[in-house]
Please model this.
Amino acid sequence: MKVLFPKNLVAKWDQALAQSSHIVVATHINPDGDAVGAMIGLGSFLRQQGYRVTCICPSPYPGFLAFLDKEKQVLVYSHQKEEVIRAVDKADMIVAVDVSGLSRMEEMGEFLLRIRAIKVLMDHHIDPVVEDFDLVFSTPQVSSTCELIFRVLNSWKPDAVFTRDQATAFLTGIITDTNQFANSVFTETFHVASLLHGWGADSETIHSAVFQHFTLNRMRLMGHALSNIKMLPQFGAAYIVLTRDVLESCDYRNGDTEGFVNIPLAIKGISISALFLQREDHIKVSLRSKGAIAVNGIAKQFFQGGGHYNASAGKMEDDPGKIEELLKEALGTIIA
Ligand code: 5GP
Ligand code: MN
Model:
């Protein structure tokens, strides 16, 4: 496998671990498949090496990812603040996964920033906030954080043995972040997927848990999304708005809209898609694109966010009436 990071960086990680016994693995708010897969896979691998590991995230992960957290070991800051604080207080090392900086962990991130433990970043976003960390393993030249971590672990421990559950966790992140190998795929991604399969990763379980565990309400919400796609053919774009009323009528749960933003990309001629989700006090904006069209620039410029070339997100003021105008203005800057 091609080496991602210089040997001396891996050696520093090894030295930092030699001085650690309690490790906290932390990820971003509203964690997705890559975040949870990376946290559980890395946490379990480190535990296997003899470390005491606690996995923490700022808010709950969606129910369809519960199959990765078999031992219900993940602590959720919004619900278990005291347990999280206790674990972090004991930690010698904090590994942040699938975030470019601690600010994507919101209040929990502010708290982590003040802690004196060694801080390590393992991530695949652009522009890592290097000043937040002592060691940085970060490159956008991988499909996912799960791919990156698996490759780092292989260079750290070339004779490493992975369990079926660890392999399943890592493959989940690759499958979800690449939208089932449709985008952000590198040659090495398939190699890693093949190795994970060799370690027993259960792709059928992943597929069934992630893509075939809809509640009826989630399916009805998707029906609403499908029936209300708005087309902007002049930009090769389409978008979906899900207002609070609609979300409430389908008894919305965290994660219910996972993947909906990709739906319009299935329409012939559509290369940019957007999903607007009305939250309590703002509208969450998700953007996706195909090929050479980048959406991270408009996510940053128009929606106070950012992300990857073809998958970004941000937010806007809580006024659904302004969505189309703002989206058109943004698209006008990237589509001639
Ligand atoms: P999603 O639409 O799945 O919520 O987010 C897509 C991608 O955008 C994420 O994988 C993440 O890289 C990025 N992203 C999401 N929210 C933010 C944000 O608030 N700021 C930045 N910089 N990136 C974000
Ligand atoms: Mn990711």
